[in-house]
Design a protein that fits this description.
Shape: elongated
Structural class: mainly beta
Largest sheet: 6 strands, antiparallel
Helix content: 10-25%
Number of strands: 12
Oligomer: single chain
Strand content: 35-45%
Number of domains: 2
Number of helices: 2
Distance between the termini: 47 Å
Length: about 180
């Protein structure tokens, strides 16, 4: 069983029910329970069961920041950078985030229909996928030449580098914008 028992210094966890601020520093711990979920022990020793680790910017800043969120949605802790954490806590959080995130990477675009909503047939790192994109606004180009495409069900697909796609895939992608 992997855990991270060494407290980390971050913004406060539950200070009189207020959200984290930069005014105080708190010690906290994360532990993986036998059922696989995480618990957070805040600076007051209170155990928060079944917490989630959520990336603030999963595409543009995948190494942080990360929020630790209680089951009721209350933010317990804020981590500016995973790289600044103790290695055992860092690996625990990276493992947890990988379990939580589903972001297939598009390797090749086979076809895109001509009318909105568009039907896409793509090859991803998880196999061939067919999905519907409601509007061109659901295709977001990022400054690093990557792109994120959201289908009608909210599933996101990542293109790591549009310029590195093959010629047909690039043409189909550009046509969809």
């Amino acid at each position: 069983m992997q855990d991270a028992r060494t407290p980390q210094k971050i913004l406060p966890a539950l200070v009189a029910g207020l959200p984290p601020t930069s005014a105080a520093i708190a010690d906290w711990q994360l532990e993986r329970q036998e059922h696989g979920r995480l618990d957070c022990i805040d600076s007051l020793g209170q155990r928060h069961t079944n917490v989630d680790a959520v990336r603030a910017f999963p595409i543009s800043a995948p190494q942080g920041p990360v929020a630790i969120v209680a089951a009721d949605g209350m933010e317990l802790a804020w981590i500016d950078s995973l790289a600044a954490l103790q290695p055992s806590l860092q690996s625990l959080l990276i493992e947890e985030l990988a379990l939580r995130e589903f972001l297939p990477v598009i390797r090749r675009i086979e076809s895109v229909s001509d009318r909105e909503p568009t039907e896409w047939l793509v090859e991803t790192d998880r196999g061939q996928r067919r999905f519907i994109v409601a509007h061109s606004d659901d295709i977001i180009r990022l400054p690093d030449a990557s792109a994120v495409i959201s289908d009608m069900f909210g599933v996101r697909y990542l293109i790591k580098s549009v310029p590195l796609l093959d010629a047909l895939s690039r043409r189909l992608f550009e046509k969809s914008l």
